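Entry for the shared binder. Reason: the reviewer on the internal report wants the predicted structure included alongside the sequence.
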Amino acid sequence: MLFPIFVVMTLLEIYVLVTVGQAIGGLSTVLLVIVTALIGSTLLRQQGWSTMAKAQQSIAEGKTPALEMLEGVVILVSGVLLLTPGFITDGLGLLGLMPWSRRYFINHILEKNAERFFSQRNAIFIHRTKNQEKTSNNKNETIEGEFWEDK
């Protein structure tokens, strides 16, 4: 499924680059691609540091920085799209760097894949607070939980 998307996107990018090149000239098209890459790299750096600061703040408050980690993934993908020459990928990359559209992408991905994310078989999640870690040296400690077997 990924290969056809790659081929179609490459052909679309070439078509758009040639069309824009015919309209405004080859040198202007190359300069425009470079300018969008510079703007994108500046935005990438700013949004990356902002997300890192939010993640550190969440950790300092004792919260799991799950949303910030997802934002980091979207920022990473947006950076890769900005490195790919072309106007369509640059547009998608710039959309991924805008906080409002980034949240939309994350919500959309979670809505479409929530069942797959949260119903994985054989997944284990253990959460202990700092107080529990200090007192968990007792080897006869009973751990409460649920168990079910897939048939």
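Summary line for the report: The chain has a mean pLDDT of 83.
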